[in-house]
Amino acid sequence: MRAxxxxxxxxVGLRRNLTMTFAVIVSVALSLALFGGSLLMSDQxxxxxxxxxxxxxxxxxxxxKSDAESDPNCAKGAVTDDQKDQILxxxxxxxxxxKVTHESQDEAYKHYKEQFGxxxxxxxxxxxxxxxxxxxxxxxxxKYQVIATAFDGRDGVQSVQDQKGILDNLFExxxxxxxxxxxxxxxxxVVALMLIVNTVRVSAFSRRRETGIMRLVGASGFxxxxxxxxxxxxxxxxxxxVACGFLVIARYFIIDHGLALSEKLSLxxxxxxxxxxxxxxxxxxxxxxxxxxxxxxxxxxxxxV
Length: 305
What we know:
Order of helices and strands: HHEHHEHEHEHHHHH
Helix content: 55-70%
Mean pLDDT: 80
Strand content: 5-15%
Shape: elongated
Number of helices: 11
Number of strands: 4
Largest sheet: 4 strands, antiparallel
Oligomer: single chain
Structural class: alpha+beta
Distance between the termini: 20 Å
Radius of gyration: 32 Å
Low-confidence stretches: none
């Protein structure tokens, strides 16, 4: 097979169906950009989980005098020193506990003033209205229920709260957005495949006389199909390159510069360039193989002479 013949046929096919080829490139670019974006979103969620789950605490809030008057869990009165000592001793015996930190009422009041000092409510609060608490760092954040079972409802304990539950709601939202992006990506991928198949069929139909002559003179099926498959592969590869460009530009302008989310949202541990660059070869390989395979199966019927 002469490479010059294949290359010339690719150029002819792309020029003859310029509009459909452009549509294939755009649809492949959008679908693969969404595909790459969904992969990066999964990496981002995993990175955030690893970062934040390592920092979450379980908090045991202790009853104060105000709670004793209004909260049923504190009906027996404010927590006593003996109860606090017993809670701390029991925490230190538990194998799931990594570290225990005590926050006094004065410390809780100070932290509240630092975070919500501008709130009208802050001016009316006094340290004795704040709750003492034990902040527990677990060896495994999934073991929250062990702490809740052991201390929820105990005398002197107002409530047991797990910060992981708040993060789970955030991650569920992010995962939902990621699955929505994947659904759109799948739809765009179907559209791209349909465009590829139709483009190849139109190209094959417009050159049916040439392919018929080639068949009559003994050309093999693969020799006849190669230019059409290569056309689809080239169009797909162009689309994949555009998709890679989209991802690189989005990472550069949204996270590093432009919106500069990495500076504005310093609490979020964003994925690095290595995560983006490792996805690009996969996108390029998919953009090359997907159209080629679609063209191959579409041609099995339309190039029979």
